[in-house]
Amino acid sequence: MPSYPAVRLRRTRIAAWSRALVAETVTTPADLIWPLFVTAGHGVEEPISTLAGVSRHSIDRVAALAREARSLGIPCIALFPNTPAELRSEDGREALNPDNLICRAVKAAKDAAPEVGVLTDVALDPYTADGHDGLTDDKAYVVNDDTVRVLMDQAVVQAEAGADIVAPSDMMDGRVGAIRKALDGAGHVNVQIMAYAAKYASAFYGPFRDAVGSRGLLKGDKKSYQMDPANAREALREVAMDIEEGADSVMVKPGLPYLDIVRRVKERFDVPVFAYQVSGEYAMIEAAAAAGAGDRDALVLETLTAFKRAGCSGVLSYHAQVAARLLGR
Description:
Elements: H1 16-22, E1 32-38, E2 45-47, E3 55-57, H2 59-72, E4 76-81, H3 101-112, E5 117-122, H4 144-161, E6 165-168, H5 175-185, E7 192-199, H6 206-211, H7 233-244, E8 249-253, H8 259-268, E9 273-277, H9 279-290, H10 296-310, E10 314-317, H11 320-327
């Protein structure tokens, strides 16, 4: 008789029911946040050429998509505006307009599906003429403290519109504490802050800039405020600062290239950690599927599992709608 091992790890892998019983990581629609792009008009669904399958939507369609999120079990949507060019300015003042695209979209989404959370982006890049996340001086340097003062007002305007989570993505120093103080002072003590705590100056953001209309506007780059991809320990310092200042949750962005950062943050801090599977990551999966290099559904589910396995509480993904349908089967 040949000698066989007493322990066979393959036994529990034989059947789907057994694999389900012993799965260490489980992903559900409740782990997803669905980013949506908002544009002017009515009945508008405007495809984004560099984000196959993703469109900009007018406010009436955002309301319908909020209801769809509810039906799919997606607990939260994230809204980003494609601000008309004529409303962009050096000071980004449209960000403070209580009747701007985002504020109207928030109200419409909450009216349509009040059970679905709404996350809004706190940063000036969709509103500035130069595409930067903050105010710039005469040397095109993004000034920190003046920008933070605008972000405080922007966050309050979004909270007044009904946002459940404000998410500062600007990477200015001290902005989380300032925004928390502003929200509390305005009576919005229950509005959450999800800090883009470790946001890297990444090459994966290109399609997003197309989606919000900032491609080609940017003067220089964002390396003076977004993080160097070479740095990991610095990310832990950024996260620690944001938690100390009052962040309810933190985000790592981009996602898959920075799973090591997700894991370090999760192990170091007792706080919910999210990842943003950014536009370039989405586009690569879609391109691979279109080229026949991989099965889209399998790629989507495997990458989402990787985020959860690394320690994410949830994931912002343009594949949220597709994933929710797959996971809901």
